[in-house]
Amino acid sequence: MRILKYIFDFYIQSSLHVALAVYALIRITFLKLNISYDEPVAHFGFFGTIVGYNFIKYDELARVKKVKLTRTFKAIIGLSILSALFALYFFVELKTKTKLIGLGALLLTILYTLPFFPDKSNMRNWSGVKIYLVAAAWVGVTVLLPVINADLDISIVVVLKCIQRFVFVFVLMLIFEIIDLQFDEKSLETIPQKLGIKKTKLLSYFIIASFLILDFFISHHQQNEFNNYHINKELQGYNLDNFYYVIINSKAQIILFFLLVLFTFYANCNRNKYYTSFWVESVPFFWLILLLVFS
Question: What pTM was computed for the model?
Answer without folding.
Answer: 0.86
